[in-house]
Design a protein that fits this description.
The complex is a heterodimer of chains A (130) and B (312).
Chain A: E1 6-13, H1 16-25, H2 36-41, H3 51-66, E2 71-79, E3 88-99, E4 102-111, E5 114-124
Antiparallel strand pairs in A: 1-3, 2-5, 3-4, 4-5
Chain B: H1 3-15, E1 19-20, H2 30-40, H3 46-50, H4 75-85, E2 90-100, E3 111-125, E4 128-140, E5 146-157, H5 193-200, E6 205-209, E7 215-216, E8 231-235, E9 239-248, E10 260-266, E11 272-277, E12 290-297, E13 303-309
Antiparallel strand pairs in B: 1-3, 2-5, 3-4, 4-5, 6-7, 6-8, 9-10, 9-12, 10-11, 12-13
Classes of the chains: A alpha+beta (130), B alpha+beta (312).
Bound molecules: zinc ion.
Chain lengths: 130, 312
């Protein structure tokens, strides 16, 4: 986990099932995340991922790599283009800082339209959850 | 409300400080955690083994549910309502930053508290003129200590008026009350309409010969290889490399700020396409650099494909 180390890429197929099941698991019942006609009526191409899911997937991406002992302290994300059903969400990440067991990872989640989410995750490599 | 009145309301809402909401309906619990992990595809066993929730679930515990009328009134609501009433009806979230003081434990009930922090604007953005509204939510545990905090920022913008009839001529009329049309409109005709329709849908379409399969760009009526007039198109991957470029400094171009980069982009599919290279300092633009397509809205009608640095 050295500075400059790249995280393995994670590519997620955004099936309608993924979009709908994550929206409901995050308790977000806004129609644009499960109702195609409503989403299109509001000018979207299709249903799309909700923000709570974007945050959850960023967290998963980093902990998949860092392992179960890692403790996430902060996730700061700049939100970009929507992640529509039918697209793929592809995560890349790089370790950009490391001090006293605290890592900062830069994460970028891309879809075909461009960057869906870019930002940083701060974590303790091995910490107490208190 | 005018801009000044909106700022006055923002100050009033910020002065309310932190406003407590209703505690979560359910305590942090294993079934909802399991359901969330399953939907996210997160196989980390540590949460359920140690009896804690994934930190990114913080907001989940206090979501309003299907019948949203029970939702708490927060200092944010009046601000958003005032922006809506003032014509800034569009909304898009721009930032979400969460800080976790500790992981929430199974069995504890979280209580949210919301603070309106800032209104910035009006600003010109790619979506239209708008205000950035920022607020924070803190989730407290039963010990009254904060468990997690979130900063959330949205852009509330004034959507540009759409033309009543959607034409493919690209001649967006700049009538009263409408955003000014981008002055450099592409010539859209029978041969090129498929390309511009693709761009509006986020697809980079390349013309193909329906007989021999040859790709050609820019589009044209006749296959240069087999002379067929039968044509189709394919959707390019959106990846490319910079084949050549110029930096345009002078003369001034209406609707554009100089300097800007005009590139010739080589697509892995086998054709080259001209487009602007954006989001890259000019001194870092280099022949051979990997690029990927991005779509920029220029006015009500026109979206242009452009190129940003990307992985090969
Ligand atoms: Zn041909």
């Amino acid at each position: 986990m050295e500075i400059g180390a790249a995280l393995p890429e994670l590519s997620i197929d955004l099936t309608p099932t993924v979009v709908v099941s994550t929206a409901l698991a995050t308790m977000d019942f806004t129609p644009v995340h499960h109702d195609v006609e409503m989403a299109r009526g509001q000018g979207s191409k299709d249903i799309f991922l909700n923000i709570l899911t974007t945050m959850g997937l960023v967290e998963r991406y980093v902990t998949d790599w860092a392992g179960p002992e890692a403790v996430i302290e902060r996730i700061a994300v700049k939100l970009g283009v929507p992640a529509y059903a039918g697209d793929r969400l592809c995560f890349n990440g790089t370790v950009v800082a490391r001090e006293d067991g605290r890592l900062t990872v830069e994460v970028r989640g891309k879809v075909s339209l461009g960057d869906h989410a870019t930002g940083t995750v701060t974590l303790m490599e091995e910490g107490e959850r208190r | 409300m005018n801009d000044q009145e909106l700022h006055e309301l923002a100050e009033k809402q910020a002065a309310l400080g932190e406003v407590r909401g209703t505690p979560a309906r359910d305590p942090v619990n294993a079934p909802m955690i399991r359901h969330w992990l399953d939907a996210m595809g997160d196989e980390n066993p540590a949460y359920l083994e140690k009896g804690v929730a994934p930190p990114a679930m913080a907001q989940v515990w206090t979501m309003p549910g299907v019948r949203r009328s029970a939702k708490d009134r927060s200092p944010v609501d009046d601000m958003i309502a005032a922006l809506d009433a003032s014509g800034y009806t569009g909304v898009v979230a721009t930032n979400c930053e969460q800080t976790y003081h500790r992981y929430a434990r199974i069995g504890e009930r979280l209580t949210p508290a919301t603070r309106f922090t800032d209104l910035a604007g009006p600003k010109r953005t790619a979506l239209g003129v708008g205000f950035f509204a920022t607020w924070t939510v803190t989730w407290y545990g039963e010990d009254e200590e904060p468990v997690a905090e979130m900063l959330f920022r949205v852009l509330k913008f004034r959507p540009r008026t759409r033309e009543s009839s959607s034409s493919t001529t690209g001649q967006a009329a700049a009538g009263e009350g409408q955003a000014a049309a981008y002055p450099l409109q592409p010539a859209i005709n029978q041969d090129t309409a498929f390309f511009w329709e693709g761009v509006k849908q986020g697809e980079l379409r390349i013309q193909t010969c329906a007989d021999c399969g040859e790709l050609r760009h820019p589009p044209g009526p006749l296959c240069p290889r087999c002379r067929s007039v039968n044509r189709g198109h394919m959707v390019a991957s959106g990846q490319g490399t910079l084949y050549s470029y110029v930096v345009h400094h002078h003369p001034p171009v209406p609707g554009r700020e100089t300097p800007f980069v005009v590139g010739v982009v080589e697509l892995p599919e086998g054709v080259r396409i001209v487009g602007n290279v954006v989001d890259c300092p000019i001194e870092e633009v280099a022949v051979g650099m990997p690029l990927r397509v991005t779509y920029r809205r220029m006015d009500d009608q026109l979206v242009l494909p452009m190129w940003t640095p990307g992985e090969a």
